[in-house]
Amino acid sequence: MAEKKSLYQEFSKGIIKENPVLRLVLGTCPTLAVTTSMESAVGMGLAASAVLICSNIVISALRKIIPQKVRIPAYIVIIAGFVTIVQMLVRAFLPQIDEMLGVYLPLIVVNCIILGRAEAFAGKNPVLLSAVDGIGMGVGFTCALLLMSGIRELLGSGSLYGFTVLPESIPPMTIFILAPGGFFVFGMLIALTNKLAERGGKPKAELKGCSACPMAATCSLVGSNDACKEETK
Fold first, then answer.
1. Please, which residues have CB within 8 angstroms of residue 197's CB and are 6 or more apart in sequence?
2. 99-124, pLDDT tens digit by residue?
3. pLDDT for 231
4. How far apart, in whole angstroms, are the C-alpha atoms of residue 136 and residue 116?
5. What's the gap between Cα 136 and its chain centre?
6. Which residues sit opposite 163 in a β-bridge?
7. For the purposes of burial, counting CB atoms within 10 Å of the CB of 153, is it exposed (0-12), middle (13-18) or buried (19 or more)?
8. d(Cα 227, Cα 184) in Å, to the nearest integer?
């Protein structure tokens, strides 16, 4: 019973409590870039989730073999391998999604969510827990993308997943499918999650300097406040 509870906690934390986008504020670059439509958001969410789950499993299985000094390069090589496989599959079977995602599909390699989970969780926990953590974080990431893309596509194009929803008499607000609209929607969702977290007695979602970076353990700037501030501007 305790093991089932632990697995459920590891799965559910990525959806709400530690949502990688809305609570940990990670992976914001692809989040803002691909949420102009729900179709591209689903494609990115599923691709990133597949890479996250597979890399978590492999990194966890090899955690006692990978030397501590080269763990970050090793993690990146593993992640890059799975990204290559996913990209080839998407390009072969879903060329439309591949065209929509463009450069952001191969850039999953440097997605902070995936490298962060490898460093913070998969490299320190058993395979099953790491797999469940990857599934939960992947679901949370996909849900955040769908929420953002649904708002932006509805208001910016008058449609949802390509199907027209708003009547022609209501002109769409094109700004929502442009960069400013992405930042606005993202900011509103962060504000909403902060408000809900505050009511639940939890800390607000915010960047916490070096402590929020998965590379903090190997970064030469850690401990130099001025340098860190310059780097995070």
1. 23, 203, 204, 205
2. 999 999 999 998 999 999 999 999 99
3. 39
4. 14
5. 11
6. 160
7. buried
8. 29
Record the tokens describing residue 77, joined without a space.
């090589």
Question: Are the beta carbons of 67 and 130 closer than 8 angstroms?
Answer: no
Contact of 22 with 204, CB cutoff 8 Å: no
Q: Judge whether residue 76 has pLDDT over 90.
A: yes
The residues, ordered by sequence, that sit 6+ positions from 89 with a Cβ below 8 Å of its Cβ are: none
pLDDT band at residue 219 using 50, 70 and 90 as cut-offs: low
State the pLDDT confidence band at 17, using cuts at 50, 70 and 90. confident
| φ, ψ at 85 (rounded to 5°) | -65, -45
Length of the chain: 233
Residue type, 118: A
In 3-state terms, what secondary structure has residue 37? Answer: coil
Closest CA to 205 of 189, 188, 187, 193: 193
| Residue 160: its H or E element | strand 159-160
- CA dist 223 and 8 (Å) reads 36
- The string of pLDDT tens digits covering residues 121-171 is 999 999 999 999 999 999 999 999 999 999 999 999 999 988 888 888 888
Phi/psi at 36 (5° precision)? -75, -20
Read off the pTM: 0.84
Q: What is the rounded CA–CA span in Å between residue 114 and residue 48? A: 8
**Percent of the chain whose predicted confidence (pLDDT) is above 70:** 83
Helix ranges, the chain (H): 2-13, 28-34, 38-61, 71-93, 95-101, 112-117, 127-157, 179-199, 225-231
Distance CA 221, CA 199 (A): 36
